[in-house]
Amino acid sequence: MSGRSIGRLAGRAILLLAAFSAVFPAFWTALNAFKNRVDIVTPTPLFIFTPTLDNFAYVLGRDSVFDGLFNSLVTSGAAVLIGAVLGLPAAYATARHPNRWSKDIQFFVLSLRFLPPVAVAIPLMVIWLQLELYDTRLSLIITYTLLTLATVVWLSVPAFARVPKEVEEAARVDGYGPYAIFFLIALPIASRSLIGAVAFAFVLVWNEFLIALMLTTSDAKTLPIVASELTQLGRDVPWGILNASVVLLSIPPLLFIGVLSGMLNSAFKRKSS
Amino acid sequence: MKNKNTLPWVFLAPAMVVLAVLALVPTVCAIVISFEDRELSRPDGNFVGFDNYLALFSDRRFVNAITVSLSWEVITVGFTMLIAVGLGILLFECVSRRTRNILALLFIVPVILPRVSAAFVWKFAFHPLYGIATYPYKAITGQPLDLLSNPLTALGTVALVDVWQWGLFFSVIVLKLLETLPPQPFEAARLDHARTWEVYGYVALPMLKAPLISLAFVKMIESLRAFDLIYVMTRGGPGISTETLDMYAFSQGFIESGRISYASGMAVLMMIATSLAFTVIWKRAKI
Hints:
- Chain A: Belongs to the binding-protein-dependent transport system permease family.
- Chain A: One of its GO terms (cellular component) is plasma membrane.
- Chain A: This is ABC transporter permease subunit.
- The complex is a heterodimer.
- Chain A is an all-alpha fold.
- Chain A has a single domain (62-272), classed as MetI-like fold (Orthogonal Bundle).
- Chain A contains 14 helices and no strands.
- In chain A, helix 1 (2-33) crosses helix 13.
- Chain B is built from 13 helices and no strands.
- Chain B has helices spanning 2-34, 51-57, 60-94, 97-112, 115-125, 135-141, 154-180, 184-191, 196-207, 209-223, 227-233, 245-256, 260-285.
- In chain B, helix 3 packs antiparallel against helix 10 (209-223) and helix 12 (245-256) packs antiparallel against helix 13.
């Protein structure tokens, strides 16, 4: 028995270490965002220092960062909205009204994830240049819709499939039409998982880098691109400012952490019962 | 009952049309461009047949990029799965349900961080002079440790960040999978005095074979999208030691020479290789 309890103790220590590694780097970055340059560039890492808001003030005061934030919000938001409006009904149809193409549709949607982003970005750059839409938010929204729509469909099919069939049958007996069943029965019942799927699609486009890098040069640049460019401000790397912009970039996805973990929980719980 | 037949079409058609147009147009376009000699500075190209493809195979950097990409896949998928299964079992075995849920929430943090953020966080942590991760080494030996500038360690160091993001997240999924298993086989095995590792090695993990394979499959696809990590942390360097296929295609097409058609040829080859590989794996595994 003692062997087992020693093992359990060691296991807990490893888990603690893993939890520390999961959170500490982000915590350290947040801490550095409040430091003056002298407190970051020290031979020994400093935990106690006089905090400053200068870094955040500088970052938020720069037009490029502000524009990037605005572009990111608009492009991610619009692409997710379109993805949800088109994707949720499509996922429902695939899950509830299967036909001989349903399997192929699911594979097609998943196969869009195989496409190397460079392979999509190079021709799109040429196309948007020819249409004179290059470096616009519109072209980025359309491109991102490919990402959000595929993701929403992919994650929502199982969510709709988990809605108990009996509930829908009962609604049909009560005289509900198929559209009413979707809007009034299936959508509300599956809403928790569906919100998770939509949130996941948002996090995915918010974090997207390569396509935005290749499809924008100045006007439509998103926040990840702006953040990555801050390193090239000069020979003296502005570490405090860099850390502040990393924190700013990470806040929106982190706001969804509860929603995403809720999605994980419901995805696995229902399947078992 | 007329409505009953319209719903699948009304609901499916718009999404499928949008997806097909958005996916097919660039794909066809990429193939067309790869048979031309387009450059960034010269938008109109001439048809050159297979020249770009033939040139690729005598390109030393292309061959290097294939090797780097393959090692990247093997390292990141392998270690992510190892860590996911290991930590997942520990979560299931060693802590109460309450602690489990708290740890699970913390383990999701890295994967939600934008890759650009994660890359900066760790790039700074690995800074030879001011980094927190390299500080212990510096304090003990008095020497700075520069992992990202060393061709031997750079790829592994970037891979560590990828595994940090995905391994911890996948361990939460493995935990959820273990929680869905029926308890009886576990109890039976314990009654037979099976050791803990035997319970998992012979009972639990074989029961989870299919979902674990699909997890590895998802990670394989996801590992192909490491561009942002590598771009921020090393830009393919030092030399070409971390230059993956997408990094090389990007620098050929945009940074160095603007050879869009050449880069497009590379992208098309990647597209064919990944589609073939993943379709075969998908049909084989019947996930």
